[in-house]
Write a structure and sequence with these properties.
The protein is mainly alpha-helical. The chain is 79% helix and 0% strand. The chain has five helices and no strands. Helix 1 (3-26) packs parallel to helix 4 and helix 1 (3-26) packs antiparallel against helix 5.
Length: 131
């Protein structure tokens, strides 16, 4: 793979990993447990954790130590700001059920987009040694 293509692949994997990490953090708060169905929340947490581990391994295989630097710039930083905004919104709305419903819809959209991105990445580059 060309160096530019590899950088794009690493950035994509880094962004997807960050999306999963931030989603996991969001749904791993005490407030989420109080507002959401506990059994579905647990399934979501387990699924997000497993996917994060897969992406972490994939990121390490593709780029190694240099990949961690991507977490401090570009799209990954924008993603961190996005999730910070979600946390601020929930806090402003006092973690109400209505606020969590809006966040759930937003997260479904975001996770669906990241799933589509991952499928395109796999199609472009082959298997990426994923599960």
């Amino acid at each position: 793979m060309a160096e530019g293509g590899q950088l794009q692949e690493v950035q994509t994997i880094s962004v997807l990993h960050e999306m999963l990490q931030q989603s996991f953090n969001l749904f791993h708060t005490e407030c989420s447990f109080a507002a959401l169905d506990p059994s579905l929340l647990q399934q979501l947490r387990i699924g997000l954790h497993e996917q994060m581990e897969d992406f972490h391994a994939c990121l390490g295989q593709v780029m190694g130590e240099e990949a961690s630097a991507l977490g401090r710039m570009g799209p990954t930083l924008a993603l961190k700001r996005y999730f910070h905004g979600i946390h601020v919104y929930l806090k402003e709305k006092e973690y109400s059920e209505g606020a969590w419903e809006i966040v759930k819809v937003e997260m479904m959209r975001a996770l669906s987009s990241s799933s589509s991105l991952y499928k395109r990445l796999k199609k472009m580059d082959g298997d990426l040694n994923s599960p």
